[in-house]
């Protein structure tokens, strides 16, 4: 099926393509389809897409990590403020009570934000691991397809070499059994013709000499 499709594409190159560059591109695609290299191109594209996706996920992990670290720092700052107030609890003023209440409320909000940031960071890490495994699988698939294609081309090359040797052998046999005898026969016939002509010429000379002697 692939062979027929590739052949049809090659036939259409001279019928509906006026641009030589487009013709070369079509011929290249048809050749890739004929040899099976189009599958390798598809796998290569899959690897490139997966690599891009992995890099995007890795960037998301870095951003989530920074957000998580910032959330930890914010909560730690709030916690330090609360601890400082608790250490001088016996000296609190009205403003200290208000500040403690506000810090306690913020500490609760910051704790929740830290938990959310941590969960997002962990989720991004897991997603990055999945994308990495998928990238590794696609690379192995590409390697496998390239090995199969290389073995196929090597096999075709081997068959082509044997076919060329057989053709050369047949040509040699044909030359020795058909063409050489004919050539030798033509040379022999030509030699015989020349020999007969030479003999006739000599006979004519001798005949002329004998006739001249008879006249005397």
Automatic annotation (TrEMBL):
It is found in: Mitochondrion inner membrane. GO terms for biological process: inner mitochondrial membrane organization. GO terms for cellular component: mitochondrial inner membrane. Keywords: Coiled coil, Membrane, Mitochondrion, Mitochondrion inner membrane, Transit peptide, Transmembrane, Transmembrane helix. The chain crosses the membrane at residues 159-179. It comes from the Eukaryota. It is a multi-pass membrane protein. Residues 3-30 form a coiled coil. Homooligomer. Required for the maintenance of the structure of the mitochondrial inner membrane. Involved in mitochondrial morphology. Causes growth arrest when highly overexpressed. Belongs to the SHE9 family. This is Sensitive to high expression protein 9, mitochondrial. It comes from Mucor lusitanicus CBS 277.49.
